[in-house]
Write a structure and sequence with these properties.
There is one protein chain. With 592 residues, the chain is α/β, with parallel strands linked by helices. It has 3 domains: 49-157, Beta-Lactamase, CATH 3.30.450; 171-326, 2-Layer Sandwich (Alpha-Beta Plaits); 342-591, TIM Barrel (Alpha-Beta Barrel), CATH 3.20.20. It is built from 22 helices and 21 strands. The strands form 4 sheets. The chain has an 8-stranded mixed barrel with strand order 13-14-16-17-18-19-20-21, surrounded by 5 helices. The protein is elongated and about 150 Å long. Residues 335-591 form the EAL domain. Pfam families: EAL, GGDEF.
Length: 592
Amino acid sequence: MQVEPHRSELAAMVDETMEFPIVREIARVEELATIELIRRARQEYLNALPIAAAIVTEQLDGTVEILGNEQFQVLDAISGAIPIRPGATLPLVEREPVQTALADFLRGSARAHEFAWQDGEGVGGRHFVVRFGRLAAYEDGTRRCVLSLIDRTAEVENERSLRAEMTHDSLTGLPNRVAFNEAVESVLEADAGMAGHAVLVVDLTRFSRINESMGSIAGDELIITVARRMIASLRAGDLLARIGGDEFAILLKLADGPGDALHAARRIQATMTAPFRISDLEIRIDCAIGCALVSDQIGGAEDLVRNAQFALKRAKGSGRVEVYQPGEVSKARHRFSLETELRRAIESDSLTLAFQPLVNLQTNKVAGFEALARWEHEALGLISPTEFIPVAEESGLIVPLGRWALETALATLARWDAEHGAPLPIHVGVNVSAIQLARDDVSSAVENALRRSGLRGDRLTLELTESAIVQDPERATRTLQGLKGLDAKIAMDDFGTGYSSLAYLQRLPIDILKIDRSFVTGMLGDRDSVAIVRAVLGLADALGMDTTAEGVETIELAHTLSALGCGCGQGFYFARPLSAGEALPYWRSRSA
């Protein structure tokens, strides 16, 4: 029976065997073969990865060995072959900050580490995500890790290109509103409350007309030329952006205080004095400019730009450079709130009409009433027409408001007839806004209202301002002719304050001229006012028109106007606007 040798005996036999050189050589070859197999296995594993990766080993003597896959080797070779900056020919792992981060990771205890690395600047720069993953150390303490490089260059360049498209105007190449707001936000963070910067908003006049009449290509050419001129007028450090179709914004640094903003605005206006050559035409373009200063009351870039746009709105009306005044935003918010409340009031029929008498100055009897909208809010109380009518015109609510006034006035007159037992020898006047005339089919609205009330057209007078006629003479002519076909009378309100010409008065079917109160109230102490009133009365007589004087507040005015031949008077001397229930008794009192 063969007895197996003891374990210690086997160890002794191996030790004795290793004394022979041939055996040691065989063992060394086998060890190298094993190491090579392991290396090949690691290499094959690394090559299978879809990213550049390498196994980094730091030997005990401090030397670093790198086993990289094919992608890592190619990336390392390409980066080193193009020396676009100092140190570019170094291997990737010997460049900063990779080298320092790798050394810290190998000597630390973290399981993984990741950071972004930009290798080089400008066009030749590369962008990577560098990741370290710890591997188990050898028994002798040799440290190892997996290094991977994810190339994000294409992604970063695409993002950069996309951002450039998102933050710049494609036509002029200027920053757009997004980029401008970012620049303003940066200034606000550094300059809050110091008033060291200002924003100008510039709007081109007549641009829409040029765009419509000459085409979008001509419009684009004009915008580009304007941008070039404005850039030439600015100082170094000022930022110009295009924030709208024909609207530009400028961020200014105020070196010498707020006056710098006005100086810049004047320079911009000066650049517009020379005509712009578009195709074979030379066109003059003006601009309106609004300004807002940085202050500690500004909530952000949008607030600052909006403030400048509020000032711009005033500049369009005044023709001057306007600076934002605190409180304008609150007023605008109040107007929007008023718009909401007015819409609800119209829908719920919460408005009322007051009726101001029109008194015949020769007979002293009531010839008619002018219907005036009144609004008494539950919380705000009585709101003046001078406050809510502009809101209605701006928001478009003037159309339903005008129709309501027309329907209500005629229905009230029909009710008075019924109470009196016969048609009254009076008419009712209803105001028609320029906005209503432009947006609504006034003739159809009047026809329907007359049919529902059962009244004849000659019981209705429609009062239009001069501006309503001048804005669109052709439309106004068609509308007035349609109204005359319904036998309605037409009165030109506030005559003398607008832009009427004799041609309009001669061509349009106008029945009554209403002399504005600005000429009437001061005529007893002003020869010029008397002359104007006398001239209007003479003109009306020559054209076969009746006249009504507004603002008659004293008996002396009433007698003077009567002596001059004025037909009717309207004002506090006769009566303030009356409710529907008070108007009929008032007519009876003056007809007795």
